[in-house]
Design goal:
The complex is a heterodimer. Chain A has helices at 3-15, 29-33, 42-53, 61-68, 75-83, 89-105. By secondary structure, chain A is an all-alpha fold. In chain A, helix 1 packs across helix 3, helix 1 (3-15) packs antiparallel against helix 6 (89-105) and helix 3 packs across helix 6 (89-105). Chain A is globular, with a radius of gyration of 14 Å. The model of chain A has no long low-confidence stretch (mean pLDDT 88). A seven-stranded antiparallel beta sheet of chain B has the order 15-12-14-13-17-18-16, with helices on both faces. By secondary structure, chain B is α+β, with helices and mostly antiparallel strands. Chain B has helices spanning 5-16, 25-32, 55-68, 119-127, 145-151, 159-162, 198-201, 234-247, 260-269, 289-303, 317-337, 352-364, 398-418, 433-439, 442-455, and strands at 21-22, 48-50, 72-75, 92-95, 102-105, 110-113, 131-132, 169-175, 181-185, 210-217, 219-220, 223-231, 254-258, 278-286, 310-314, 339-341, 373-378, 387-391. Classes of the chains: A mainly alpha, B alpha+beta. The A-B interface holds A 13, 16-17, 19-23, 25-26, 35-39, 43-44, 47-48, 51-52, 56-58, 60-63, 66, 79, 83-86 and B 22, 24-27, 29-31, 33-35, 37, 39-40, 51, 77-79, 95, 97-98, 100, 116, 118, 139, 141-142, 328, 332, 335-336, 394-395.
Chain lengths: 113, 470
Amino acid sequence: MTERENLRETLLKEIARCRACRFCVDVCPTYQASIGVETLSAFGRLQAMGYLLRRKLKFDDSLTYALYSCLQCRRCEVVCKSKGQNLDICTLIELGRALLSEPLAEGKDRERI
Amino acid sequence: MGMDLKRLHKDLAKIAGEAHVFTDKPTSLVYAKDVMPYDVEEHNMPYAVVRPAGSREISRILRYANEKGIPVHIHGSGTSLVGLARPKTNCIVLDMGRMTDIQIFPERGYFEVEPGLHVAKVRKALARHRAMLPVFPGSELVATIGGAVSVNTSAHAVDAALGKPGDYVLGLEVVLPTGEIIETGTESPRRPAGIEPTKFLIGSEGLFCVLTKLRMRLIPQPEMENIVAYYGETDHILETVMEMYRQGVPTPLFFEFLDEKSARAGFDAVGLGEPAGAVAMMCIHSWSKAGCQEKAESFLEFLQVGRPLQSKIVKDTQEWNKIWSSRAEAGNYIYRLGSTFGSEITPRVDKLKDAYHDAKDAILNLKSYQNPDFYSFGHIGAPTIHAYAFIPSKDISNEVKKAVVQEVREVTEEINVKYGGCGGEWGLTAQRVSFLKKRYEAPYFQLLLNLKRALDPNNILNRGNLEGWV
């Protein structure tokens, strides 16, 4: 298994731990700033990334925006630790960005990112 | 999907504004995903998510949907445990997240709130007026007040102590499936007697209308005393609950329990020593301190009927917070460490013990997954049995997850049917339609279909939930 495949597997395994309780949604500053768009919350980002990695979604501008609008403030992680699954959400999003941006930057799936 | 998404986007943007309409796939996916442990499929994906500002926009969206024949799925916060939140068909999702206004009128004895406000925020706003919100879901940080009243769930509270939130709804503003905006009920603290639509619309699970404003009575915040009781075994707690109803003892506002395994997990998580067996925790409420103290002492005396190893009124807030949160922590534990499949059984109270043991046997003998663990905790005094099948792995296939969900549902439905229960917390459509059909005769379900057809001739709202589609 290549390093990329390993990373993909790790991410999928971690994202599968999210039980979709949505407790992290309300504390996310980008969710608040958007007056409640769930795609712009930790829950939304994790779900979208999971389906993308399983090739059930395609990378598009809206997904790029969702992933890259995360401020990495880690408020979601505090809630996830106390109420949910204790996921390192921001790290997962960061790893996801790295994994997904590499082929994009090379122009494999889309021309721009 | 055969839908002109650009056209749909443009049409919806004319109604709600460009910033509040989404037709991209990631957003559709996120709004389709719910707590159900299996994947969103293509037929669940919304065409569009629209976030209206009020009833007029909702009215226009519904008229448009009727004209075009597009189903509309109402989204509160997506926390339903019985599949209400997942669209059953490609549709327009109506996200209520922008409708969060609340106005409190102490001089009128009520407050008015829009449906999208999270329960915890409603509670916080009411606390400033020393008022209590009669809704206690575990998901209150994100669950919406509109969702709670749409299901008419008090969640963790004991119905016999406080009733349902619908008992405190004085009136509603709703948009009917065909787009008409109507106001129901009263501004008086006295609820209307006789035929009045409010009571038919409360708990209608988004099948008969979209709730756009709720008017609810202000309930004075009661005094509370907390009790913990430790038991050698769960059976003694079940016998206590049965005896409480048999003797007509005034019920606590909350009567929670942890079975032996859940108690070990929950107490360990909050840093309390391992309990000897099962644990029960109760919150006694009354409108005066003296009354509350007397009621708590009296209840403590009654509890001796179940032979607890130890029981006491807990005065220390820190100690109580640990004990109380052990219940939530038990839930976190099983959800964190594996795949968990829950159920809701609300038996006739004199059959509580039989129903509990039937549930345990059924979970331990599942066919779709061999040898799962059995956990149970929750609002046993309500009475509700939450029987959980726990598989200590997240790494199981989508097909197995679906099969276990279905089997747990089927076997626990049988127990509800056998012991005369119906459910008291999670709503009765979507995944539970098969239960309704088993529990009642055909004319009952036909009545529901007729009501739906009368109000929603094109079956626009929450299509598939009453049909029981997965």
